[in-house]
Design goal:
Histidine kinase, transmembrane, membrane, mainly alpha, transmembrane helix, about 60 residues
Length: about 60
């Protein structure tokens, strides 16, 4: 049961990563080049943390 929740949390982190990369890819080239890598990484971490937090609550 614990590994199932861990896999779901990892899946949500991966989904957050892909969503952020997709959003960055849609931005114009000038904006993409102006964005520091730390901003993209921070967005991935925040979305991943939110996903893990939601997964750790368990079913309602």
């Amino acid at each position: 049961m614990n590994t199932d929740r861990l896999l779901r949390a990892a899946g949500r982190c991966a989904l957050a990563f892909l969503l952020v990369l997709g959003a960055v890819a849609l931005l114009p080239r000038a904006v993409r080049e102006a964005l520091p890598d730390a901003v993209v990484g921070g967005a991935v971490l925040v979305l991943g943390a939110v996903g893990v937090r939601r997964a750790s609550r368990g079913p309602r």
